[in-house]
Amino acid sequence: MKYNILGNTGLIVSELCFGTMTFGAKGRFKNIGGVDQNAATDLLKQVVDAGVNFIDTANVYSEGISEEITGKAIQDAGISRESLILATKVRGTMGEGPNEKGLTRKHIIDQVDASLKRLDTDYIDLYQIHSNDPITPIDETLRALDDLVSSGKVRYIGASNVAAWQLMKALDYSKYNNVARFASLQAYYTIAGRDLEREIIPLLQDQKVGLMVWSPLAGGLLSGKYDREETKTGGRRDDFDFPPVNKDRAFDIVDALRPMAEKKDVSVAQLSIAWLLQQKAVTSVIIGAKTKEQLSDNLKSTEVQFTEDELKELDEISQLPKEYPGWMLNFTKEDRKVDSRHSAS
């Protein structure tokens, strides 16, 4: 297991992060969940034994049950709380009232206390907004999060599922108002869905924001068990076809991965995760599982090695279609390249 620094901080996290969306089975995420307390404890111990120190959950997963199971699993497995980087999220609907959702000061402060109680911990290492709130000013959100950092309830803050302009607006507000800054972005990114490379990844690299990747197997589509005929497999996409993927392109990529996997004696899933681990912008890839066998397979992705030719082949088959202004920016930058042997002065 390798470790990376999270964004522009000194916090060190494992290159794989264990996601606990599968813990519990209630609400809108019940099709993804189903892992009970005993199984969760076993899975958590398995990833920690493999060197994972980064755990991610959210208050909305199984309506809070995932956090409860995660907190108890840490204790039942005898894992030191201080050895873990524990992350959770806020924004989603947690009740029937009009103020039990969003990124208002009220909801954030109410929910951090609820998450602390469910997780049975005194602090949250990384507290993330789960998406944008279109009706709450960003200054209200950031000042509430800054207060939580100052109080010690939260150590670092992060964002998830936001547009590039929304993230940049928040980063600028933090800089010029001296409040806590987003250390990371949690976002969807796969070899079959490289949209993040258009605007967001250049922003993350420029602003030194870490990247946590969710759904690295595109909801199981890159596991290798699905085919073009969409035969039922018993996987989660049978009943929950999410996230949206261009399936023609995805299966072209899977077709390229299969012989590569056979040659290396690894799974297609391992190759899909390993490709992400090769991307410079990626800090940590979130893996989740319902069984020890699935988890073991995902963990082995850290051992996969690619040749330059293999990476080139995968890059070519998965490249995004050219778009504006990207193609124009690539064209116009040609006259500003500097010979590395000389200074630009």
Helices and strands, with pairings:
Blueprint: E1 3-5, E2 12-14, E3 16-19, H1 37-49, E4 54-56, H2 65-76, E5 85-90, H3 105-119, E6 124-129, H4 138-151, E7 154-160, H5 164-177, E8 182-188, H6 200-207, E9 210-214, H7 247-264, H8 268-277, E10 284-287, H9 292-299, H10 308-318, H11 326-332
Helix pairs in contact: 1-2, 1-9, 2-3, 3-4, 7-8, 7-10
Shape: globular
Helix-strand pattern? EEEHEHEHEHEHEHEHHEHHH
Number of helices: 11
Rg estimate, integer Å: 20 Å
Distance between the termini: 42 Å
For the report, how would you describe the main beta sheet?
A: 8 strands, parallel, barrel
Percent strand: 5-15%
| CATH homologous superfamily grouping | NADP-dependent oxidoreductase domain
CATH topology: TIM Barrel
Low-confidence stretches: none
Return the CATH architecture.
Answer: Alpha-Beta Barrel
Supply the number of structural domains.
Answer: 1
What does this structure look like?
This protein has 345 residues and is of the alpha/beta class. The protein has a single domain (3-336), classed as NADP-dependent oxidoreductase domain (TIM Barrel), CATH 3.20.20. Helix content is 38%, strand content 14%. It has an 8-stranded parallel beta barrel with strand order 3-4-5-6-7-8-9-10, surrounded by 6 helices. Helix 4 links the parallel strand 6 and strand 7 (154-160). 41% of the residues are buried. The model has no long low-confidence stretch (mean pLDDT 94).
